[in-house]
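Example 3.2
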Amino acid sequence: MQKNKRFDQNWKFWFVIVALLIVSINAVLSEPAPHPHATHLKPKKKKPTPINQEALKEAKIYSGVLYLSETQIYEKLTYEYGDNFSPETAQAVIKHLKIDFNTNALARAKDYSNKEHLSKNKIYDYLITDKFTAAQANYAVEHLKVDYNENALLIGKSYSETDHLSKNKIYKQLIDKLDGSFSVKNAKYAVKHLEVNYNENALFRAKSFLEEEPLSKKGIYDKLAGNFGEEFTAENAQYAVAHLEVDYNSNALAKAKTYREDSDISDGDLREQLDARGFTPEEIRYAINHLAQ
């Protein structure tokens, strides 16, 4: 009886062993056979596209020398009648260089300030025109160390030297959004510190008026001092007309001739027209008397 019991235990043990072997064999047999070319099915690492050295050379100049924006560099590299590289080549080169376009925008901003003495607003506008992003343009103008008062002073000086403007006109042009676009503070500083002889500016403007048309003394004064004219002070305008060497009789005659040539105007109407233009009675009389000669 004891012998049968031991046999029964041995039988159970070997049964478990055989069962485990069968399960293991089935698991192995159920695995798919390896493909004969399995090594070719593994994804290959893509080789990096070689950088076009000629394009890289040009891009380095555009960025490191000219400080262009990303868009401008791309456009120059791909321009049909210029470098004419492919879009893929241009993009690869720009990515390879890892350019800090904030730094480029700042460099361009410094150049604009140093060479053209622009306002903060104008520098920003120029950078946007150069196709920098708004964020890059903002970075540049916020990090630019510039005395905009001095820039406004230099621009105001150029207005005076070039156009011989009045103090009021210089101020208005400095703050005009389409012109100087400086702040009120910058413009006030400029006109306060400008060393300008506005009497001489008024005299220069008066002479330029006379080159365009024959005016009366009053007509010149009104153009100089009027709110819709040059906006010189009364003192500036008086200085100008006092220092002009003008034959107003001849001006009245020249004006009368233009009226007579344009229409069959009567002497009475002609007197009214010349009077409206600010000529004196003596100048009008001279013009009428000499018109037929």
